[in-house]
Amino acid sequence: MRLRWIYGILYWCCALAWAAEPFSVAVIDVKPWAMESKPGVYGGIYVDAARVIAQEAGYPLRFKLLPYLRVPLEVASGGSAFTIVSDNDDLNASSIKVGLVQQLPLVAIPRSNAGVTQLSDLQHKRIAVLRGTTYHTQLAGILSADFTPVEHYEQAFQMLLMNRVDAVLGVDQGLKYMVQSSPSLKSQQRKFGAPIGLTLLDAYLYVSPRLPLHQLLEIKRAYQAAKSKHLFDSVFNSY
Prior knowledge:
alpha/beta; D-Maltodextrin-Binding Protein, domain 2; Transporter substrate-binding domain-containing protein
């Protein structure tokens, strides 16, 4: 009887310790999806969307800002519990695709003097695209262009200003945020043409296959609750 009490106490101590353990979340290290304003202080669209899930589930979070190509490996290996990112072939193959978080407008921004105002004008042009993304594959069959990989949006816009590319491909919120938040780009925004709407990208919640079943179910429940309350819409509309 006494051993049963001891085992019971140990069980609940372990449960409490486990409950206090934060979920690790992998986020692409690209503004405005994720950013660290100062050590340990994170913000950004995907960061805030992950917080919505955590709040619904009742778990604290620990963020890992990683290069785009590292995120699928991090989630598949169990290094992080989940991520939110646009539709990704590697994650589709190696992780659990829980559901759609948000649809994102994919646009191209040309130089203002390039005479590029519609999709057909982009044919056979040089277009900067974020390395590791599959944005350009969304346009397969409707656009033939020379896609040039870049590390971040600011590099893409600098290449546009230097005439090294003819347009920048990306998500509308991300491109607009970069121009408005960078003093050097904002001062030259008249040199950028109007965004050309191309298609919609689907951003999904992906969960690690190594996550215990009860945690997976809790994340799924939290996701459904956030969707029903339109909390993801609020996050994405705030940027």
